Description:
Helix 1 (19-29) runs antiparallel to helix 2 (169-179). The protein has a ten-stranded antiparallel beta sheet with strand order 1-3-4-5-2-7-10-9-8-6, covered by helices on one side. The chain is an alpha+beta fold. Helices cover 15% and strands 37% of the residues. The chain has one domain: Roll (Thiol Ester Dehydrase, Chain A). The chain is globular, with a radius of gyration of 18 Å.
Amino acid sequence: MTHDxxxxxxxxxxxxxxxxxxxxxxxxxxxxxxxxLPPLWHWMLFQDxxxxxxxxxxxxxxxxxxxxxxxxxxxxxWAGGRVGFTGVALxxxxxxxxxxxxxxxAEKAGGSGRLVFVTVKHVVEGPxxxxxxxxxxxxxxxxxxxxxxxxxxxxxWPDAMTRQVxxxxxxxxxxxxxxxxxxxxxxxxxxxxxxxxxxxxVVHGPLQATLMAALAQETAPGLRLARFAFRGKRPCFDGRAxxxxxxxxxxxxxxxxxxxxxxxxxxAEAELVPASA
Length: 277
């Protein structure tokens, strides 16, 4: 089966938004427990747990199933995405359904060799209607060393709202557990340094996106997030301060995460609307 044959493939999953998940994420991020699920916390849902024999060497489920296998490119990561929020709330106890469709499979040449990008659309529906429409970009790459090249500090944002976090192994482990993410680069130090060639545990891209989405809302009390788009630029690692920056211009917010060298790790754009919209 060719990779292109996967385009248009769909699947549905159902789940329940458990109060324990919400309490766990709030504790992991150091926040009070919310009544309504905050933006991007839905990534705790629809987890893919497989039997031990179904786990690949990187901790992900072995290739196959819904996504194209891309067997010759063993590294798989979440590169970015675009998320739309309809304003329909999700609450603890809700039964939820996700309908997923593979939109595209594209092969490209990158600085580290051949890459395959897969874009998947997800529609998340709760008891009050469709809450989230999302496009997720997944990238497959070869097993070549993941050398992290030095990058110049990004230009200063003197007018930005800034929050600083210090991701540590406990935070990364807890986020992995809450989202059902078995990728070993986030919690297995010997693996991430000895096999994948990174200098430390990698901070999850979705965790960075979640922190940016929260800051986008913090810039404008009384408004809510309508759209959020993010893309990874370079990895960041545990034990190193991570700055989350937001600049608001009317109903739009530009965001970045930056490591302790000032280099940009992730970029995002958010659109706000009145909370009643």
